[in-house]
């Protein structure tokens, strides 16, 4: 349920759905995101430039020459997005992952802090049905949950300057995949050869908020020979 609307500078508003980070809250964000998109396509509202869903908020950027903040807020407050329905079954994407020690950069930390051996850690990770909460940080980069509490870990005390593209990381109940070489402080558990973002495709990002993800273990040999379509 929409709790609060706040201005972000002159050309943006934040639609806040509360402090809780959960699937139910995120699904409300996604429903509202769909409503704003549909309203824009149907020309019920003008001037919307971009919508960015997060765990529990939707950021809307708009063209100040076409619509005022007060007009957009009034439109939202008078609207009923509850009639928007989401698919009963989310899109399920299987993502290959190699847990070889060469790619599991934080294997020792994982074992020490979880008190599990790496085979047990892999088993817990593979049995998790992940929910994509949002895409952000860099293009195509997914933030997914929810991990078993046995695998909850804090961020690294000293973030890495460079995390290799394809690295799969975990922090607390979340899992992410680095779609580009970039800095990062997540605990790296493995690597996927699957290219999650390709600017040359009509839909550059394979994953979207609300999707489901299941990891599939592959060998180092399979990773090195993997070909993206």
Automatic annotation (TrEMBL):
Keyword ATP-binding annotated: yes
GO MF entries: ATP binding; hydrolase activity
Entry keyword set: ATP-binding, Hydrolase, Nucleotide-binding
Matches recorded under Gene3D superfamilies: 3.30.1360.40, Cyclophilin-like
Annotated InterPro entries: CT_C_D, Cyclophilin-like_dom_sf, PxpB
Carboxyltransferase domain location: 3-207
Hydrolase among keywords: yes
Protein name in UniProt: Carboxyltransferase domain-containing protein
Organism field: marine metagenome
């Amino acid at each position: 349920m929409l709790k609060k609307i706040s201005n972000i500078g002159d050309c943006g508003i934040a639609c806040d759905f509360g402090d809780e980070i959960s699937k139910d809250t995120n699904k409300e964000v996604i429903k509202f995101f769909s409503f704003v998109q549909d309203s824009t396509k149907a020309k019920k509202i003008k001037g919307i430039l971009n919508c960015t869903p997060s765990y529990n908020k939707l950021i809307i950027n708009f063209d100040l020459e076409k619509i005022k903040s007060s007009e957009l807020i009034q439109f939202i407050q008078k609207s009923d997005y509850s009639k928007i329905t989401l698919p009963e079954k989310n899109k399920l994407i299987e993502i290959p992952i190699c847990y070889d020690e060469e790619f599991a950069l934080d294997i020792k930390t994982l074992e020490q802090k979880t008190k599990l051996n790496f085979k047990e850690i892999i088993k817990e990770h593979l049995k998790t049905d992940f929910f994509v909460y949002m895409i952000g940080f860099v293009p195509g980069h997914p933030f997914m949950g929810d991990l078993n509490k046995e695998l909850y870990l804090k961020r690294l005390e000293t973030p890495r300057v460079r995390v290799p593209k394809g690295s799969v990381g975990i922090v607390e109940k979340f899992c992410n995949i680095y779609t580009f070489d970039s800095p990062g402080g997540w605990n790296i558990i493995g690597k996927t050869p699957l290219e999650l973002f390709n600017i040359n495709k009509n839909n550059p990002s394979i994953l979207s908020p609300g999707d489901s993800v299941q990891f599939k273990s592959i060998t180092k040999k399979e990773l090195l020979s993997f070909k993206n379509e």
